[in-house]
Structure formats: structure tokens, C-alpha cells
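2024-03-11 09:14:02 INFO queue: dequeued item Probable transaldolase, len=217
2024-03-11 09:14:02 INFO validating residues
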Amino acid sequence: MKFFLDTAKIDEIKEAHDTGLLDGVTTNPSLVKKAGGDFFETLSEIASVVDGPVSAETVATDHETMLQEGLKCAKIADNIAVKVPLTVDGLKTCKALRAEGIMVNVTLCFSANQALLAAKAGATFISPFVGRHDDVGFNGMELIEDIRTIYDNYGFDTEILVASIRHPVHVLEAARIGGDVATMPWDVMKKLFNHPLTDKGLDAFLKDWAATGFSIL
Ligand code: E4P
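2024-03-11 09:14:37 INFO prediction written
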């Protein structure tokens, strides 16, 4: 499973990159607003730090303008994935950008049928939002299961990018189901490293080692 960071904050991205476990970044207009700074400069800096795909979201709602935005975003760097919404115009734009060899992340997916359409439009990534699904009383992970089944039935190579992740259990469940990518806030990624028994065990080993008086180096 690939790990993407869901943020436009460069300091968080650098910290996550330093772990050696970061495979990409997703941004959206709300995350760009939260990070502050110029859109193009921010995306360009992120794309220079991260080796993998960096999603830059379009904001037009009609196909022609969205395509122009997508082509402009794609020029920021070779690893930019253009994000388009799951609408008729979004999927038309997806198809056109894919024909140019540009990576496309189709976002705001809330149903398996929508994910099927995105795969047919040649999307590189489909972003089903699990947390927002949970928020309105549905089980977001059932959506991931359905998409996995459908994509496997037909051999689609669109990657399932599990989005709107709120806690480590979302990551665990997405990995069990076979989501290809989990995009998460840095706060959630950091939590994946932690276990109280790891801390307790390490503490005991270090105390015993100190009592031996040995030194490794
Ligand atoms: C990422 O691509 C999505 O835009 C993001 O995960 C949405 O997360 P949220 O529901 O926490 O805003």
C-alpha cells in the first residue's frame, strides 16, 4: 500500500518525506487555503520534495476551462496529478488529460458506480472519501470493498486512493481490503508508528542493557 500525505503544508511534507515512507501528496482547495501561500509556488515546492504523484485540484466546473486549468497545473512538474471532480465535465476532462499522458486523480467519489465511471474514463486514481461517508451515517469502507471488487472483476488499473482518512483504523481497514493508496493527514500517519507496548518494551530493554555495562560502539 502506498502512503500519501493529505496536506499542502511543506513542513509536514518534509517531515513525512524524511521517514522514507512517503509515496505522494494530495491537496485540495481547502488544504491550500489552510497552508496559505501562492498555489503554484506551493505545488511546485511540494513536487520538488516528493518523488511520487502530487495532486493539484482544478476549480472550474465546465470541461473547457477545467481542461485549461489541468494543462496549466500539469506544467508545474512531471509528477503532478491533476485532480478533477466526479462530474460529467470532470470525467470528460479526465479522458482528455489522460490522452495527453497526464496523471489524473478523480475526486469527490461517494459511490461505486461513480468509481466505475472514473475507471472507464481512464483515471489514474479514484478518490473515495471514507471519513465524509462515515460522517453521514454510511460505512465508508463498504464503498472501498465494492470498488475493489468491481475493479478486480474487470481488470481496471485505476488505483483506489482511499481519501478523507480520519484515524489509523481507516488505514488498517483500507489495507485489509486492498486499497492501493491511503492519503492521510500527517497527524494520522505519525500515529501509525505508535504502540504503548513498543515504548514499554524499549524502555525495559534499555534499562537492562545499561545494567550490563556493555557498549556496542
Ligand atoms: C484528498 O484527496 C481529499 O480531498 C481529502 O482526503 C478530503 O479529506 P476531508 O474529508 O478530511 O476534507
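2024-03-11 09:14:37 INFO annotate: The chain has one domain: 2-212.
2024-03-11 09:14:38 INFO item closed
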